[in-house]
Amino acid sequence: MSGTKPVAPLGSPAPATPPAPLAPLIVARHLNKTFERVADGRGTDAVRDVDLTIQEGEIVCLVGPSGCGKTTLLRIIAGLDRPTSGEVALRGKAIDGPGAERGMIFQSFALFPWRTVRRNIEFGLEVRRVPRMERHRISSDLIDLVGLQGFAGAHPRELSGGMQQRVGLARALANDPAVLLMDEPFGSLDAQTRNLMQTELLKIWERTRKTVVFVTHSVDESVFLADRIVLLTARPASVKTIVEIGIPRPRDRASPEFAAIRQRVLRDLTEEVLKGMAQQDRPGAVE
């Protein structure tokens, strides 16, 4: 009959509903950053004309040569540095300073040595004057989430490096940020602990679905963690290419698919590393 919708045979699978597209969380447009040198008044370009969109709930790794501007870009997103020109916005609102919706995690653990694990985690909540009982509830939940049960009363000096970084991660999560900004958070850890922390981060991400922007020098780490890898050029940083990983989690580092992506990213990264070395070798080059 005309206008009648066809009926699927009994027992046929229901038509698949396409997944809802991810919503943009962070949008950077024509982002530039130049640092003025006090000695001679000349400028050093750190970031040049970066256009980047980061979707809600994804993990994005920023990879590039040493000193190319990865951390500068992360700090601009955090509101710790201002761009010279261009704009970066979070949910449509321009970022003009730090905010609780962005949690920053550094390579150095940056814990208060005189505070216990619990009180380090609760620091931001105290600043916001969250009531004591609510602070205790939140910190207890996070201590469980990051696997530090039994260490709530310990001080940083009593913890391993991996455990200290778990405290830093819990402290960043305490404010329930929209995005975690991670600046080589596992770079100072030994190889075994680093791999363990990568797996732990993914477990936490599976439970919270926080957006993560993660700076790393490790191609292997970026392929293991990321939904997308943003490969930056030698200084000044601009976007050379964006690599969609597309491998289901959990990922096998020994798989052919993993190796192929790692090789591609490493090839492109090596090109930029060599360009950076050539820049430094030029007469008058500035570190």
Describe the structure.
- With 287 residues, the protein is of the alpha/beta class.
- It has a six-stranded mixed sheet, with helices on both faces. Strands 2-1-4-5 form a four-stranded antiparallel sheet, with helices on one face.
- The longest helix has 26 residues.
- It starts with 23 loop residues before the first strand and ends in a 6-residue tail after the last helix.
Distance between the termini: 76 Å
Query: Which strand order do you get reading across the main beta sheet?
Result: 6-7-8-3-9-10
Structural domain tally? 2
Low-confidence stretches: 1-19, 283-287
Mean pLDDT, all residues = 89
Note the run of SSEs as H and E.
EEEHEEEHHHHEHEHEEH
Overview in brief:
By secondary structure, the chain is of the alpha/beta class. It has helices at 70-78, 117-121, 123-127, 132-145, 161-174, 191-208, 219-225, 256-281; strands spanning 24-36, 43-55, 59-63, 85-90, 93-94, 102-105, 179-183, 211-215, 228-232, 239-244.
